[in-house]
Design a protein that fits this description.
190 residues; Arc Repressor Mutant, subunit A; 0% strand; elongated; DNA-binding; HTH-type_Tx_Regulator; HTH_TetR; DNA binding
Length: 190
């Protein structure tokens, strides 16, 4: 029985890998079940044992890449000056960079960034609202702004082949969050 479940898992993985190779080359609406099964070496019937359609492959893949609340590391604010936990996002992004760089890129899935943000918001929101006296509605806007910026800057970092060392990127993001863009730019004035 264990052997069968290993074969089933491998077949599913092969189909997902074939889909991913195609998705990296072309937009999802141009990918067919036939393309996936030919690339993976299976028939259409096998595909439909695992997925409803091409969009279901993408959905299941994305779901596997988005951490659940229980998978996220605990957030602590030891010195009460620390902002959103950038290390957590960097680790998450680096672990899944093969997928994130495409899904969050120009030809990726626009909904993926929202899914990623929405998976982390509850944890961050809870910690900050417990430790700071901030209006919860206003904080939702702040959190959306910060998470969008973080996802954007990390996507840009990957698209630029990590030209800036990771440590420098984290320091830059902390500086931008704590001091703002204009303060950073003005400190570099000629």
């Amino acid at each position: 029985m264990k052997k069968q479940s290993e074969i089933t898992a491998q077949t599913r993985r092969n189909l997902v890998d074939a889909f991913w190779a195609l998705y990296c080359e072309k937009r999802i609406e141009k990918i067919t079940v036939k393309d996936i099964t030919q690339k993976a070496g299976y028939n259409r019937g096998t595909f439909y044992e695992y997925f409803a359609d091409v969009y279901d492959v993408l959905e299941q893949l994305e779901e596997s890449l988005i951490p659940t609340i229980h998978e996220l590391p605990p957030i602590s604010i030891p010195n009460q000056n620390i902002g959103v936990p950038l290390d957590m996002f960097m680790t998450l992004y680096e672990q899944n960079s093969k997928y994130y760089s495409v899904l969050l890129g120009d030809n990726g899935d626009p909904a993926f960034a929202s899914k990623l943000k929405n998976s982390t918001k509850p944890v961050i929101r809870q910690v900050f609202l417990e430790n700071y006296n901030v209006d919860s509605v206003e904080f939702d806007f702040i959190l959306e702004f910060v998470l969008s910026a973080m996802i954007g800057i990390m996507s840009y970092w990957f698209s630029q082949d990590k030209i800036l060392p990771a440590e420098n990127l984290v320091l830059l993001m902390y500086d931008l969050m704590e001091n703002g863009v204009m303060k950073r730019i003005q400190s570099k004035k000629i």
